[in-house]
């Protein structure tokens, strides 16, 4: 089964903030003929309650809204399939999905810099029912995550969690493409020259602008967490 031609994105309402409208337009431009679904918080809640009754109590009781946003994108891939992209993810050219059943991307680790493999959770694509997403949902049901502060979200429901499930079970998954960082997760651009290089490289298909304020980057709590995790390596 191929990846269905459906784009999923999420936001609080049907009105996308102006600062992200260009990125959203790029996703639609480079996926012509694909159905587009912008899910609101209320629609996400209704879908999980109706289609994932075992997950619903866990999902409902999450400490932070970003955790529900994380988990819904996994549910959408399992139940419906298609492409998920954060609102601040920009496509530069069409991606050749071909016969891939599960498309994931390596990214620079938010916790450890570039020293460890990590699966991005801001862009991926899948056929419905892929066993990876079943494992993700089962793990959440069996081990409901709790967090102390926003930095814990990375390992509770974010890319750290996704990476753990994937790398623990990857030998069981078929039809998987994991793109290297330059393809879908290059480092953030700092100049127009870097952007021009990516556009002309033929290697990069999209990039994440990383504007999520929830990460609380470079607060004292965040820095302490980074140091503590690094010392445990």
UniProtKB/TrEMBL annotation:
GO terms for biological process: mannosyl-inositol phosphorylceramide biosynthetic process. The keyword Lipid biosynthesis does not apply. The keyword Transferase applies. Keywords: Transferase. One of its GO terms (molecular function) is mannosyltransferase activity. It comes from the Bacteria. GO terms for cellular component: membrane. PANTHER family: MANNOSYL PHOSPHORYLINOSITOL CERAMIDE SYNTHASE, NUCLEOTIDE-DIPHOSPHO-SUGAR TRANSFERASE. This is Glycosyltransferase sugar-binding region containing DXD motif-containing protein. It comes from Neomesorhizobium albiziae. The lineage of its organism: Bacteria, Pseudomonadati, Pseudomonadota, Alphaproteobacteria, Hyphomicrobiales.
